[in-house]
Design a protein that fits this description.
Elements lengths: L1 H5 L10 H8 L4 H18 L4 E2 L7 E2 L5 H4 L8 H15 L5 H28 L1 E6 L8 E4 L10 E7 L4 E6 L5 E5 L3 E7 L5 E2 L4 E5 L3 E5 L4 H14 L4 H12 L4
Antiparallel strand pairs: 1-2, 3-8, 4-5, 4-8, 5-6, 6-7, 8-9, 10-11
Helix pairs in contact: 3-5, 5-6, 7-8
Length: 254
């Protein structure tokens, strides 16, 4: 039906797709769109289809057998969540799940997403991002020079080399040059709760007054080095711009 609609093959016998569906299949055009959408979701599920069998030697690919089993998945915002929901429903049913089982799993995923969003909002509301003294420097860390520094007060940079236990080489963001800065003059962003407890930044978006939205993502040192080399190669001012260019060049369609 999708081919008939997109390629307009129905025009050989009918003026409209709606008339063709009514005469050929006996249902309205809206039902055709429902079935087309269901097939798209099944195709998505097939990319990560769960397997289940009565014993270790029997492996079955579990696909939906009715459109009603697929219908609850339409309300999920991403293909990844659709696959996750179907996998959980299959695991729960130990076979092909009913539409009711799929709906229950979809509701659980939605409730979890709402709870996580609420917790993150509460955390950002009750905690504040502060710059605190850096104690354990690592290559790739984003740092700020303290405001009492005589030459580079409150300049942002990234640690590119640890020279000794008292100072590090910091590549300045704005000046595009490296300077040796003593450890006592370096600060790092951390979350400080209302009781003064310091914790790691939350991965994801965090709002910093004066700076706007910043993203915190933890990566290993080798990944950071590769991204840093790519940023220098393409000549971007920030790592974020480099990642954006990389994603666009790979056409991830995100």
């Amino acid at each position: 039906m999708q081919a008939l609609r997109d390629q307009r093959l129905y025009r050989s016998t009918h003026k409209t797709f709606a008339e063709y569906c009514k005469d050929r299949f006996g249902f309205e055009k809206s039902h055709s769109y429902i079935l087309i959408k269901a097939v798209e979701i099944v195709d998505n599920i097939s990319k990560n289809v769960p397997n289940w069998g009565q014993n270790s030697t029997e492996v079955l690919s579990i696909f939906p057998t009715k459109e009603s089993q697929v219908r609850p998945l339409k309300s999920l915002p991403s293909a990844e969540l659709q696959r996750k929901a179907w996998s959980k429903a299959v695991e729960k049913a130990q076979g092909v799940p009913t539409a009711k089982m799929v709906q229950e799993v979809v509701n659980q995923l939605k409730n979890q997403a709402q709870l996580t969003a609420s917790e993150n909002h509460s955390c950002r509301k009750n905690n504040r991002i502060r710059f605190v003294p850096l104690e354990n420097p690592r290559i790739g860390q984003e740092v700020r020079i303290c405001k009492k520094h005589p030459l580079f007060p409150q300049q942002l940079g990234i640690i590119t080399q640890i020279t000794n236990n008292r100072s590090e080489i910091v590549e300045m963001k704005n000046q595009k040059q490296s300077q040796q800065i003593e450890l006592k003059d370096l600060e790092i962003q951390r979350i400080v709760d209302k009781n003064g407890k310091v914790s790691q930044p939350i991965e994801g978006p965090n709002y910093t007054p004066g700076s706007g939205i910043e993203w915190y993502v933890r990566v290993d040192e080798e990944t950071w080095r590769r991204l840093d080399r790519y940023a220098k190669k393409v000549g971007t001012a920030t790592m974020g711009n480099a990642i954006a260019l990389l994603l666009e060049s790979e056409d991830y369609n995100l």
